[in-house]
## 1
Amino acid sequence: MSDQQLSPDWPASVHPPGSESFEQTAVVWLFDHVPADYRLHGVLRRHPVALSRLARRHVAAALEGAREGYRTARVDLRDHLPPHAVDQVMNAYLEEGRRTAALLRGVAAVDDALRDAARPPGAAGAGG
């Protein structure tokens, strides 16, 4: 895969698939976006596609959490915060939701590429 074929969501610090350092840079980047304790599991270092799957699920759950928080914040907080603070919380959810959605697109792109790289030659199927 050449640089011209990389998705606009491709993380800048992850080298392109097919490059010698692709998996190494992908692992470093993915570990930066999951809980620190994930680093305790050697299997995630030895099998980057396992790490990318866990990262994809983790970031997707964080995005769903932000969406749920946004949906419920006004009602949950109206008796505890002044209206301007509730508005600020809503804006924080919006910003974090956008950031997390973009992160999820990047994680998904890396996960798909790692899955493709781990697939034995001639094996059928697509990433995801």
## 2
Amino acid sequence: MPRPRRCRYVSATPAVTYFKPRGIPLRELQEIRLEVEELEALRLADAEGLTAQQAAERMRVSRHTFGRTLASARRAVALALTQGMALRIEGGNYAVVNLPHENKEQVMQKIAVSSEGPTLDDLVDPRFGRAGGFVVVTLPDKSVEYIDNGASQTMSMGAGIETAERMSRAGVNVVISGYVGPKAFEALKAAGVKICQDVEGVTVREAVERFERGELPFAEASNK
């Protein structure tokens, strides 16, 4: 039985996903696909100029795996250019990860962590919609506040959506939790709030530190 393919980490999903030769109708073109992680390999190696080892560490794969991914990406682009093919960027096995800022000036952002208590040393509550509250850490200055979520705990239905709206009203940029239901996920996404899920068994402080180190990928879909 073949080994499962390991997830590659990328810094963002591509803003542009299709390229074609000018003046040729789409119906007359052959397509070649470039996977999202292959595009990331191209960006790291050829746009940022990182070494294979540095780029592999960014994508959290081995140097050998990065080399194969980069070679596949370069071949796809070469075929598209030399044979006049359309290039479609899609698919693959990847997750978007929040990379730590490398610039001296960091963007201010509010990180809300579902918590079993009001302090950084309380454990992460694995529930999102019915969490007792959220410890909100503003980066980069590390100021802390607490949002009580007790009203949502008593709701028979719609707790996740109500909690998502509470996060939006508080100006939260990122939510860290264990399990986020599909309706709450869509409500957060519609409000422009990014989600890091599958986080439990650690303190709020540890969860925020993991986020700052770029160890928590942004989720593309609900895990519940």
